[in-house]
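Let us walk through a complete example step by step. Step one is to write down the protein sequence. Step two is to encode the small molecule, 2-acetamido-2-deoxy-beta-D-glucopyranose, as a SMILES string so that its atoms and bonds are unambiguous. Step three, shown after the inputs, is the structure prediction itself.
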Amino acid sequence: MARILLILASKFIILSILSSSGLIQCSREDDHDFVSILDRKLLGLKEEKLSRFRIYWHDIVSGRNATSIQVVQPPNGSATGFGIISMIDDPLTEGPKLSSKMVGRAQGFYALSSQEEIGLLMSMNFAFTVGKYNGSTITVLGRNTVLSKVREMPVIGGSGLFRFARGYVQARTHTFNLKTGDAIIQYTCYVLHY
Ligand SMILES: *[C@@H]1O[C@H](CO)[C@@H](O)[C@H](O)[C@H]1NC(C)=O
Ligand SMILES: *[C@@H]1O[C@H](CO)[C@@H](O)[C@H](O)[C@H]1NC(C)=O
Ligand SMILES: *[C@@H]1O[C@H](CO)[C@@H](O)[C@H](O)[C@H]1NC(C)=O
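Step three: the predicted structure of the complex.
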C-alpha cells in the first residue's frame, strides 16, 4: 500500500514538473490562467462614494447648430414615432440656460421604442469636460417615457473617476419648445463610484 502511494506520489511529482515546464499540458476545466484575483488596493480603490450631480441636457433639434440629428426615419407613420433614431451630441450645463457653465456633453443616441406611447430607449455617455472630471464618463442606458414627470434610468458604468460606477438618473423636463422641438431636461444623477 505504502509502495503504491509512493509510486503515485512520484508520478504526480514528475507530472507536475513536466506540466509546469510546459512539456505536457494539463487541461483542467478550472484552469483559467488569464484570470487572476486582484486586491482592489492595487488599483487604488478605497471607499465607495455616492455622488449626486444635477445637470441640464440640451436637446437642440432645430436650426443650423442642431445637436440632435434624426438618422433613422420611422418606416411607417406611427403615431408614437416608433422606429425613429436620433444621434445626439447634446451640451450638458450646470444651469438650465445654454449659456451657463458647460460641464460636458451627452453623446449617444435615443430611439423611439414604444408603439403605445412616446417612449425612448436612451443610450448615451455623459462625457465630462471640467476640472478633475475632465475625460471621465458615465453611461446611461434606460427607458425614457418623455411625457412622465420623472423618468428614471440606470447608470450602468463609467470611466476615469467613475470606474465601476453604478446608479441611476432622474430626468425631469425643464422646458420643451413645442414650436422647435428643442428640449431642456434636468438630469439628477446618483452614482456610486470609488
Ligand atoms: C451656431 O453656432 C455659431 C458658432 O457658435 C454661432 O455663431 C451661430 O450664431 C449659431 N447659429 C444659430 C442659428 O444658433
Ligand atoms: C403603413 O401602415 C398602413 C396602416 O396601418 C398600412 O396599410 C400600410 O400597408 C403600411 N405601409 C407600409 C409600407 O408598411
Ligand atoms: C480636458 O482634457 C482635454 C484633453 O486632455 C484638454 O484638451 C482640455 O484642455 C481639458 N479641459 C479642461 C477644462 O481642463
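Step four is interpretation. The longest strand covers residues 49-59.
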